[in-house]
Structures are given as C-alpha cells and as structure tokens.
Specification:
Elements (H helix, E strand, L loop, with lengths): L14 H17 L3 E2 L14 E2 L2 E2 L3 E4 H22 L2 H8 L10 H15 L7 E12 L8 E8 L6 H18 L18 H16 L5 E5 L7 H15 L3 E4 L1 H7 E3 L6 E4 L10 E9 L11 H12 L3 E3 L2 H6 L2 H7 L26 H6 L4 E3 L6 H8 L4 E4 L9 E2 L3 H7 L9 E4 L8 E5 L8 E18 L6 E14 L13 E3 L1 E4 L1
Parallel strand pairs: 4-21, 7-8, 7-11, 11-12
Antiparallel strand pairs: 1-2, 3-17, 5-6, 5-18, 9-10, 10-11, 13-16, 14-15, 14-16, 17-18, 18-19, 19-20
Helix pairs in contact: 1-5, 4-9, 6-7, 8-9
C-alpha cells in the first residue's frame, strides 16, 4: 500500500450530497433485501414490517495485497479446521469435560458430553460440512509501518451475514454507478470494488452436502433461533438452494424440533414431521443436511430438553453443519493452543484435499502463523498467565468460549475482572494481544430511523471476514473445500465489539487501495 494517507477517509461531501446518498442507499437497501426485522420482544408469526440493515455510506479502503492474502489463507484454514475436527484426542484434551475446557465451561462441557455419549454408543459422523468465516483486522503498531493482516477469530458455526454482505457490496456499486460518489475520490472506481458472491458460494457447499447424502427427495433443515431478526440473510440462501438446485428447506427452532424430529432406529435417517404442510400430502420429510443458524450460545439451550434435541440431531446420518466436534474445533481455546510451537505442525503436509477438480494447496505454517497475534491461556504455568494479563492489560483482550458478540473483556476492565474470576474458571479464558488498527479511517454510518440526515460520521475500524466451506470426513479421506466470498463490518472506533446482530457494527464493503 502506498502509505497511511490513503486511510484519510471518507471523502468530503456537502450536506446535500450526503443526504442524497443516504436516500439512494436506504431505498436501494429496502428494495433489494438488505433488511432486518425491527426490534421486538417477540417477533410476530409473520413479519409485518422490515427496516434496512445498518450500513456504511461509502465502501471502506482496504489494502489490495492484504485482501488477496486473506482470500488465499481461507483455503488453508478450511483444510486446517477440517483436520482439527477429526482429531478426537486433541479435542478431548483441549475442549473435553474430563481433561479440557469443558471441565470449567458448562456450555462447552455439555456439548462435549453429547459427543462423548454418541461415541460411547458407537455413533460417528461419516461426513461433516463446515461453513466457515475467518475474521481479520489490519494491525499497524507504528503510524508509518505497513499494515499487517491479523486474525481476530475463526468461526465454525452460524457464520452469518454472507447474503447481506453480497447485497451491501452491490449497493455500493449502485451508488458508484448512479452518483459516481460526486467524484469525491479517485479510488472510487469499479475496478477497485471486488466481486462478492457468498450467496451462491455458501449454497454450493450446502448443495454438495445434500448431494453426498444421496436422496433426491430429502430436504435441508435450517435450525434457527426464536425471534430471529436476521431472517432475510438466511432466506437468500434458502431461495438460492431451491431455484438453482431444486432443494427444499424446512426451518425449525429447537422447541419445534423437540416435537417434529425423529430418527428412524434402523437407518438413523432424520425425518421432520409436518403434517398438512408438505407437498403431495406427505406427513414427514427426510433431512439430508442440518444447518445450524443457532446452537452457538447457552441461550439457545435454556433447558436439558434442548440439549437432548441436539443429541437427537447428531445421532442421525444427516450431515451436520457443523457437527459438535467441528463446533468444538472453533473454540477460542483451540485458537490459542494452535499458537503453541509444534501444534500446528501436526496438521501440515497432508494432501488429501480437493477443490472442484483441482487439488487444494498444502497447508504451510508461515503465512498462518504470521496472521496470529500473541495469545496464552489464563491458566498458563500456574499464576503466570494471570500475572502477564495484569501486567499487560492495556494491550489485551480476554476471550471466553463464546460466539455472538458482547462476551470479551478489554483493557482497563481486565484487572477487576481477574480479581473476581474464580481460579478454577481460568482455563476457559484466553488472553490475546490487541490488534492496533490504522488511524484516520472514518465513514458515514447509517442506521434505520434516521431519515436522510441519519448518516452519522464517525472514526471507524473495519473487520474483514472471509467465507469458506469444507465437506470432509467420508471414507476416501478427501476434503472438498472452497473460498466463497467476504464480509466487511465497520464499527465506531470507540466500540470494542464487532457483531452486527448484537448492535455494534454496520455492514460495509471494501474499496481496494494499493
């Protein structure tokens, strides 16, 4: 990249130009499915209204070289996490309820115990589907240093916003085509707005798992949360699967599945009963693939019955996206343990992988390790992990084994948190060096309800996510995998967290800079 001056963003606009762009953006978003359900304690059975998703008015600058690196790394991460998920001994040791994090983290322990119960019954998964997203920030520890790409986390369950990310990239292309952004910046050119097609890419992964199941009449099950506001991000995938692959979808919550789901004992086939709601008068449908857009937080399992429903789904021969063992492989503790010398090397140099018709690249550790910040467990060497966290707290974030945003502890909040953290719970937390993002980057953040004057200018930081999928674990040992698109989430620089659904970020897209 040419230098830090390119991060002086956004370009200058008059008030009239800003209001015109905001009108173009919000009406395009509402017209093209870049939408949410409005906040409500309980969502109505059928939507009565929608609001546009929070969005950035300009695409945000991102170094072309680092963007292409992130896309290349996704292929390596697809392979790495597929191999991790098949390493039973490693997951038992790191995430298990007898030797690992599951001893002190109840949610992790509950999931692991379901997996152990299945193994004790002689039930294993013949096939796994991972829909992944690897999240990155730019790290610029010194003002004139070139920015580096650093991984925030790797998501193996409910990696969301692929569909809406495609739509917001199209929105920014539309604004450029319609207004040329009032010639406000020379970098705002079509060739600097990279293509982004996660809807077709993620649907391709689900369709590959469906095809491998081998039953043309089977459906795909989306396991969703109650009162889900981000339903349209999921619906785009549903429509793509039906229109391109003639695959039908059934959406169910855990509460509904407790009544509707059954596993045929002789075949372990998963069926969902929907009497009166299926074509041709059928009473139930076979399920080829279970796609979890829930089950990543303890809030999704408020009673033991919810865990029992997860067990029932895992017991079946349907391909899970993800299986419990793949969900466990995405734990923060796994991310930390991978940084230990000698651990990553166990998963290198295997070539049993495919991507379409070509072999995927071998994993090599240099570029992967270069994307990691320093990490350690709070339980490291007795008191040493906690002492290091106290000493360096201004440059750290503490992370538990949780997804969904709002769970981390930052900087000045760390000492008091450590004072209150029981010693036996330290194993469930990791310390990670903070990524120092470039200065001078701003944008206009547009949230619903602000009208044409609702674009608020703020200093921001942008987090890049790269989507991929991997289908693996069958008898021939191949890993079919692809990188299939990207996400950019932009938040006010004063916000530590980054989740859009949790209300911290807006959807954005990239304009590549050299």
């Amino acid at each position: 990249m040419a230098g830090p001056s390119l991060f002086q963003w956004p370009p200058d606009l008059t008030d009239d130009q800003r209001e015109a762009l905001t009108l173009h953006a919000t009406t395009y978003a509402l017209s093209h499915g870049l939408i949410y359900l409005p906040p409500a304690d309980v969502q109505p059975p059928a939507p009565t209204s929608a609001i546009h998703a929070p969005l950035a008015l300009f695409p945000s600058p991102f170094p072309r070289r680092q963007f292409e690196l992130a896309k290349r790394l996704q292929r390596k991460y697809n392979l790495l996490y597929a191999r991790l998920a098949l390493d039973v001994e490693f997951l038992d040791r790191v995430m298990g309820a007898e030797r690992g994090v599951g001893r002190v983290d109840e949610f992790t322990g509950q999931l692991w115990r379901i997996w152990k119960r299945l193994r004790d019954e002689g039930i294993t998964q013949s096939r796994h589907l991972g829909i992944f997203r690897s999240d990155y920030l730019l790290h610029q520890p010194e003002p004139n240093a070139p920015p580096e790409l650093k991984q925030v986390e790797f998501n193996t369950i409910s990696a969301s916003f692929g569909s809406l990310s495609e739509n917001v990239a199209q929105l920014h292309r539309h604004l450029l085509a319609t207004t040329e952004y009032y010639n406000s910046s020379p970098v705002l050119r079509p060739e600097n707005l990279p293509p982004n097609n996660p809807i077709s890419g993620l649907a391709e992964g689900l369709a590959a798992a469906h095809k491998a199941h081998g039953s043309l009449s089977a459906w795909i099950l989306f396991v969703v949360q109650d009162s889900e506001r981000n339903v349209f991000d999921q619906r785009w995938l549903e429509y793509e699967l039906l229109e391109k692959y003639s695959i039908r979808i059934v959406r169910q919550t855990f509460e509904e599945l407790a009544v509707s789901a059954e596993v045929v004992p002789t075949s372990r086939t998963l069926r969902v009963k929907l009497p009166g709601l299926l074509p041709s008068g059928a009473e139930s449908v076979e399920i080829s693939t279970v796609y979890f857009r829930s089950a990543y937080t303890p809030n999704d399992f408020p009673t033991p019955a919810h865990y029992e429903t997860r067990y029932l789904l895992e017991k079946s021969i349907a391909t899970k996206c993800p299986s419990i063992q793949l969900q466990l492989a995405g734990g923060k503790k796994v991310q930390e343990v991978l940084t230990t010398p000698g651990v990553l090397e166990r998963y290198l140099n295997e070539s049993n992988s495919t991507a379409g018709q070509t072999d995927a690249p071998l994993i090599e550790d240099v570029s992967l390790r270069a994307s990691w910040m320093g990490m350690w467990g709070l339980d490291e060497n007795g008191e040493e992990g906690v002492q290091k966290a106290r000493r360096d707290h201004q440059n750290l974030v503490l992370k538990p084994q949780r997804e969904g945003g709002g769970n981390n502890v930052y900087k000045d909040d760390i000492p008091a948190f450590l004072d209150a953290l029981p010693q036996e719970e330290r194993e469930a937390w990791i310390a990670m060096e903070l990524i120092k993002t470039p200065e001078g980057l701003g944008n206009y953040l547009v949230r619903a309800g602000g009208g044409t004057a609702g674009a608020v200018k703020a200093d921001v930081v942008s987090e890049l996510g790269i989507f991929g999928w991997a289908l693996f674990g069958d008898t021939d040992g191949t890993i079919e995998e692809k990188e299939v698109g990207w996400l950019l989430r932009t938040k006010g620089k004063e916000s530590n967290e980054g989740g859009i659904a949790a209300g911290f970020s807006v959807l954005d897209s990239v304009v590549l800079v050299d």
